[in-house]
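User
Take a look at the entry that follows and flag anything odd:
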Amino acid sequence: MKKRVVVTGLGAVTPIGNGITAFRKNLKEGFSGLGPIQSFDASRFPVKNAFEIKNFEARVHGTHLLDPFIQYAVAAAGEAIQNAYFEIPQVDPYRIGISVSSSKGGVHTIDRFKERFFKHPSAILGARIYANSVPNFAAQWIARRWKINGPAKCYVAACATGTVAVIEGARMVSEGIVDYCVAGASDASITPLMMAGYHNMKALDPEDIRPFDKRRKGFMVGEGAGILFLETLESAKARGVRVYGEILGSAYGNHTSDLIKFEEADDALSHTLGKLFHSGSIRPEEIDYINLHGTGTHAGDIYETSELKKALGKRAHQIPMSSTKSMTGHMLGASGAVEIIASLLAMEEEFIPPTIHLEKPDPACDLNYTPIKSKPAKIRRALSVSMGFGGHVAVIGLGKI
């Protein structure tokens, strides 16, 4: 008999606020985290703006020598654990799991040290690069910081990484592999190499990210981390802590037509949603909000709209939806985890987050994307949708207790 899994702690480092309090406020107010690139000299670079983390003090967390993706993950994990009022020394450390991932790992470290290593190769520098670049090292630093001895897993699924990490963390708790789990993802990919790659792929909008707007030209890169603390409903009740929501169910799919873009002929998303609905964990008529993948790419937004109509039928036009990437930028592997957090905060605060900059709707994108401003609404059931390069599709259902 699988156990019911709930979220009792949240932690966030985002372009629109470090910490849950700031993130919640700016999410509701429709704040944009876009600004000029500060992490490298972009004066001669084709892309000059991004959604960077601001006012983050790594020294406070004792992680200033580590790659930013590790810094953000450790900070968000610390907040999530504290937010859950969880005292790790009071429980068996082998009953706590970690499911924290990154889609890119330490690309800042590689960019920073590659030339130095080529000129003066050394075992010490090589070890430093390695220990800061592999995606699983965020999970390992969290394990070290809080002396967690349970399974530490790292799932890489491109831009669906964060959602997959939360799903698999919830699965460990549900199946009794662990009693508690720290789950989520972190990415810090605003570097010349990564930005040039996305630019040459013609995936970036040089001005802003405008999901579902007919002026859209692509996404803009964001960075940060989102971490959730998971435990059973029984445990949360026994501890007497706040429950943000329940993980109702999840489903995976894969798009095989193209590695980069999702094409309408492939029904990966609608099929994945159908699997979720067929499981009975959440039904279309129950859904009060959907946090969309919504990257602002021309083909991607049309594909997502079409697939939602296919999966939901007439109900698709009745459900409030939004792309919170319009505020945070595309946080790549961290996006899914942060968007699950956004959905849970919307559920708690009773509002629909907006899709800002949606001023000129694309006629082909005709669902209710909550343009410009947030709206009050009671949310009892929500979905969060993630997709990624390579064809990854992941959806998760959330419920209010």
